[in-house]
Amino acid sequence: MADHVATGMAELVVVTPGALTLVQDRGRPGYAAIGVSASGAFDVRAYETGGRLLGNPEGAAALEVLLGGLVVRARASTRAVLTGGLVQARVAGRPVGYGEPFPLLAGEELRVGQCSRGIRTYLSLAGGVLVRPVLGSRATDTLSTLGPPPLAAGDVLPLGRPADATTVVVAPLTPPPDGLVTLDVLPGPRSDWLADPQLPGDWTVAPDSNRVGVRLLGDAWSRAHAGELASEGVVRGAIQLPPDGRPVIFGPDHPTTGGYPVVGVLTDQACDLLAQLRPGQRVRFRTSGK
Amino acid sequence: MRLLPSGERAVLVELGSLEEVLALVDAVRRLAGVEDVVPGERTLLVTVAKAGDLQAVRQLLPGMAGFGRPDGLAAPRGDDNAIQTAKTPSSRAAQTLVVPVVYDGPDLDDVAAHTGLSVAGLVAAHTGTPWRVAFGGFAPGFAYLVGGDPRLEVPRRPEPRATVPTGSVGLAGRYSGVYPRSSPGGWQLIGRTDLVLFDPDREPPALLQPGTTVQFVAHDG
Questions:
Q1: Average predicted confidence (pLDDT) for chain B
Q2: Which of B26, B14, B4, B144 is nearest to B92 (CA)?
Q3: What does the pLDDT read at residue A243?
Q4: Cβ contact (<8 Å) for B7 and A237?
Q5: What is the CATH architecture assignment of A2-158?
Q6: If both were cysteines, with which of B4, B39, B139, B169 could A189 make a disulfide (CB 3.0 to 4.6 Å apart)?
């Protein structure tokens, strides 16, 4: 800590973490064969946009704030931006925009309000969050408990060196959708296990959804045939069909292998929408060809 | 070999046997654009970093099928450099990892009763043949080991334990495995090892990788 002060490196003090705030980056792909999922930011586009708005290097770590409520204080002046889940926020009492980089001066507090659209807001900071990487990534994997633990009050996060100049000032950000969300789905390896491969029905996001998987409630799908499947590798966005017929869609911290049939896989764009679904929100699938 | 779709950036390769899967792992990992390779019992999930690379990888895979056959001599189509490297056995698969085990697990007697073996016979069976890592997936560093003595096939415990200690050696179905860290678990526990199976600060982080041969050795507590 003394080193950071001596070199003028910025640090961020966590005053209140909110419901759950995690450090996330692009994750650690390449280790799934030894049971380690890629993890990383759930809403990839929102996370990447935040980094770009600050001119951060690719893969710089940001904070993924669940449902808002985060309060942080800067120990040295820096710049920051909020993307993803729509929030109102204030720095030292004055409102700051969504998707617009803003200065956070030494000693000032940033208070992130409740999330009104979506559920995951990304707080990107100039230079990125510099906690110790594990297997090449600073992401917190909630299933494997790799990477830093969730933020707690009093944590001090060192920040990297900011970019000398950035060119983008405001990004045309669309907040996550309210109401019924349609998720685009590509065929899965076991789509033929479903009686109706069109993935029919209206579904409701279950409250026990998280970064491992998003559970859906609704009229169960029926299987085309019974039988068992040997464990096989699964991807983020995979729609898994457990015996009860209600789909579970894998998030970034999913198990690396699974024994239930995967009957569809979300597009990367749909995965970003998945990240922002609120419990109780309605969901429908739209299948497309190969 | 069947190629099954798995979204924008992955393909699930379905093969005839675990041997075929393990024979392909290293070669496929070296293909340009491949980000991750996940073996299953009869499948290999191949993920690329960029969706645009998937088609090229899909086209190369069928030519690699011959590596999985017992004769191992089927010529691949084309002379792609990445494919040629697959002809040399992987250093990983050639390794044998010796795992010292103290056989004093809480389910030792139950397993002995279920299998009809004495405890000494059970230990002899577990240490009598080499095992092989088929695939991972339950936790970082956990490996499903196959190829052991078929008499050791036992069901999972009816009630999973809330906490299984680090290093516990267990049996479930036709698998054996070692818990790399404390976690809930339903396997029948027959012993324990001091070996650190997973350490993210070590290279490689996991001692047990797909294809690794494992020899359990009885060790006095």
A1: 88
A2: B26
A3: 87
A4: yes
A5: Sandwich (2.60)
A6: B4
